[in-house]
Design a protein that fits this description.
Blueprint lengths: L2 H8 L7 H23 L4 H4 L4 H20 L3 H16 L7 H16 L2 H16 L1 H9 L12
Helix pairs in contact: 1-5, 2-4, 2-6, 2-7, 5-8, 6-7
C-alpha cells in the first residue's frame, strides 16, 4: 500500500464525538498506566523493546495523549505521518516488529474493558486501521528518505 492509499483509508475514519473524546481523555492516564503494567509483565518484553522499558512506558503515555488529541481534532495526514514516524523512531531504538501487534492488541483489550460500548464503537476503527496496516507501516518506514537527505553524487 502506498502512502497515498494509507492517507485515503485514514480519511474514511470518522472523528469520535465530543462525549467519546472526553471519556477517552478522562481515562487516558489510567489506560497508559495499565498498558505499562500489562506490557511490562510480558516475559518477552525486553526482547520486543530492545531493553528500552522506559521508552516503552513513554510510548504508551504518548500514544494515549496523541490519540486523545486526534479524537478531538481528527487529521488523517497527522495520523499517518505520526504512525510512520513512530515506526521509524522506535525501531531505530531496538523495538522489534513483534511489539506493535502485541501493543495494539493489548490496547484493544484494555479499551474494551474500560470504555463504554458507545466509546469503543467510535474508537475501535482507529485501532483496527492501525492493526490492519502494520505491514504497510513497516514497508513505508523502511523506505523513508527525509526530504533534506543528501543526494549522492555519481
Amino acid at each position: 500500500m502506498t502512502k497515498e492509499e494509507l492517507l485515503s483509508s485514514a480519511g474514511l475514519l470518522i472523528q469520535p464525538s465530543k462525549q467519546v473524546s472526553a471519556e477517552y481523555g478522562r481515562k487516558r492516564e489510567q489506560l497508559a498506566a495499565d498498558m505499562n503494567r500489562i506490557m511490562g509483565e510480558r516475559p518477552d518484553i525486553e526482547y520486543m523493546v530492545g531493553g528500552n522499558r522506559a521508552m516503552m512506558d513513554d510510548n504508551h503515555r504518548n500514544h494515549a495523549r496523541f490519540l486523545e488529541s486526534l479524537f478531538s481534532l481528527y487529521s488523517p495526514s497527522e495520523f499517518v505521518e505520526t504512525v510512520l514516524w513512530v515506526f521509524r523512531a522506535y525501531r531505530s531504538h531496538g523495538f522489534q516488529l513483534t511489539y506493535w501487534p502485541a501493543q495494539l492488541d493489548t490496547w484493544v483489550e484494555l479499551l474494551r474493558s474500560e470504555l463504554s460500548p458507545e466509546a469503543m464503537d467510535e474508537i475501535y476503527p482507529f485501532y483496527r486501521w492501525m492493526i490492519v496496516n502494520q505491514h504497510s507501516f513497516v514497508l513505508l518506514s523502511d523506505s523513508f528518505v527525509p526530504a533534506d537527505a543528501a543526494v549522492p553524487k555519481h
